[in-house]
Write a structure and sequence with these properties.
mainly alpha; globular; Growth Hormone, Chain: A; 395 residues; 2 domains; 16 helices
Length: 395
């Protein structure tokens, strides 16, 4: 193990923990929504602002936080953002009115936006490309667990201690992780300074322009936008589909779709082996193939039980292709890596938003028997296209 290897492994573990907190924070209001409707006596459509405010701020702030990470150091921005999230989460737990709750959720979303994208950019600085994909998978395991953990935390705490305790617990997690990051990363400041050199005072617009001016970067960004549209547009409709078309309870439908995260976590445990056997091109083809078959089975299956393997397979296939995209995002423009990965995250967010809107509009018009398989076929064709690009890049 090299002199830099030990602090690097510490940082990967801490980034995974911070990723858990950030994704748990993103999903905690899913389970809290009924409790918030009762607490503030608001309709469901209005109460859902606590979710959309977080998501919109998360996407918009990518275009600011990426360049800040390039300018002032990725590890420094991540650490400060994690500590700030502890403050915002505690303030959310104490929110006196619904307006304050929505505003604080937006502030938390905008600050949380620094953690995973800049963590990926840091991995690009610190880890050689050949080892990067498996290392990113280890880091992302925390975020994947956070997806399910946030939903369980929200639902469980709302029924026992009350909704405010969910945000208080998140504040404690953020504080614990941020404090350790502050101590550990300060202790290895020289290493992180070399890993995060920045690019001077180049303006934010110039950094983004440099990313968008790279042909391979444009292909990666278009791919992740379409991927987000197809996968998350479908994923958001699964609970409603199982409930509306098969009469499954919302609790069972929610538990079924949670297997998406389990499929993703399974991939992280096997990432090193899969990368070694399949390579990036093989992962792209296999991942979109598994996800496509899962969506076809979901739409054509005669029973809701088909949703169980379909949700797991969709998560497994998605993270196979998405981890490959993330790895390439860290190498799109190395001199503006923080900006590049943040633009990548913004493209994914915009794709998710577009996908949910389009899928919700189409579900009843064309039916699930067409919606899910069509998304699956589109995803597989996207994988073929991206794999051909990887071959052209010599990957």
């Amino acid at each position: 193990m090299t002199d830099n290897a030990a602090p690097r492994q510490w940082t990967i573990a801490l980034l995974a923990a911070a990723g858990f907190a950030s994704m748990a924070s993103a999903r905690v209001c899913d389970g809290l929504l009924p409790a918030l409707i009762r607490a503030f006596d608001r309709p469901a459509s209005e109460t859902a602002y606590v979710i959309t405010a977080f998501a919109m701020a998360y996407g918009v702030m990518q275009l600011v936080l990426g360049p800040l990470g390039d300018r002032y150091g990725k590890h420094r921005v991540i650490t400060l953002a994690t500590l700030a999230c502890a403050v915002w989460s505690l303030a959310t737990a104490l929110a006196p009115t619904f307006a304050w709750l929505v505003a604080l959720r937006a502030v938390t979303g905008g600050t949380t936006a620094a953690i995973i994208p800049l963590g990926l950019a840091w991995m690009g600085d610190a880890v050689a490309y050949r080892q990067r994909q498996s290392s990113i998978a280890r880091m992302m395991s925390g975020g994947i667990l956070g997806l399910g953990g946030g939903q369980l935390l929200g639902g469980g705490v709302a029924d026992t201690l009350g909704w405010r305790w969910a945000f208080a617990m998140l504040a404690g997690i953020y504080l614990a992780v941020g404090a350790v990051m502050w101590v550990k990363l300060r202790g290895h400041a020289a290493i992180h300074a070399r890993m995060s050199p920045g690019t001077g005072s180049l303006a934010i617009g110039s950094r983004i322009g440099a990313v968008l001016g790279t042909p391979w970067a444009r292909r990666v960004l278009v791919t992740v936008f379409i991927e987000g549209t197809l996968v998350f547009g479908s994923l958001a409709m699964i609970p409603y589909y199982l409930n509306r078309f098969f009469g499954v309870s919302l609790a069972v439908a929610g538990a079924t779709v949670a297997l998406f995260a389990l499929g993703g976590f399974f991939y992280t445990t096997q990432a090193r082996r899969l990368v070694a056997v399949l390579g990036e091109t093989g992962l792209s083809l296999a991942g979109t193939g598994v996800a496509a078959l899962s969506l076809v089975a979901l739409g054509l299956g005669p029973s809701w039980l088909w949703g169980i393997p379909a949700s797991f397979g969709l998560g497994l296939g998605y993270y196979m292709i998405h981890n490959t995209l993330q790895t390439n995002a860290t190498q799109m423009t190395p001199e503006h890596r923080g900006t590049a990965v943040s633009v990548f995250a913004a493209a994914l967010f915009l794709g998710q938003s577009a996908g949910v809107t389009v899928s919700a509009a189409l579900l009843h018009r064309i039916g699930p028997g067409w919606l899910f398989p069509t998304a699956g076929v589109g995803l597989f064709l996207l994988g073929l296209r991206f794999a051909s690009g990887l071959r052209g890049e010599g990957r």
